[in-house]
Amino acid sequence: MKHLFFLAAFLLAACSPALQAQDLKSEMITLAKAWQEATNRGDVAALQTAYADEVVIVNAKDNSTTTLTKAQLHEGDMQQFSEMDDQTTILLETAEAMPDGRVKVTGTVSGVRTTKKSGEKTNYVFRFENLIVRENGQWKVCQFKNWVP
Predict the structure, then answer these.
(1) Which one of 12, 33, 69, 145 is separated from 58 by 20 to 30 angstroms, measured CA to CA?
(2) pTM over 0.90
């Protein structure tokens, strides 16, 4: 009987990280879906709730960084959505817990951007590797790294 108890405890301990990883990926998929829907609606207010107070933008070519405030990101989003409509699809591939409590997510963004003034449509695809942090119980993007494959 003692052996069954230890076997059950071992199996629970072994499965726990896998279950936690599944839960984490599920949470990140939910965040990505909310981001996708807000982008497709042109909903700047909804996007604002997904940004950390400061977000690091990583240049994928040389890994140089720029830090933007939530207000700066808001201004950029307002301008973008006033000039164009996006129909975006986000495919989240991985969600990895980092030792510092953040989550590294990777995936692909694709879609069609329509310039409002001319009606011109442009297809786009890019890869991302972003960092997500929990602030006040909510997941927020704290770092963007995007590149065209």
Answers:
(1) 33
(2) no
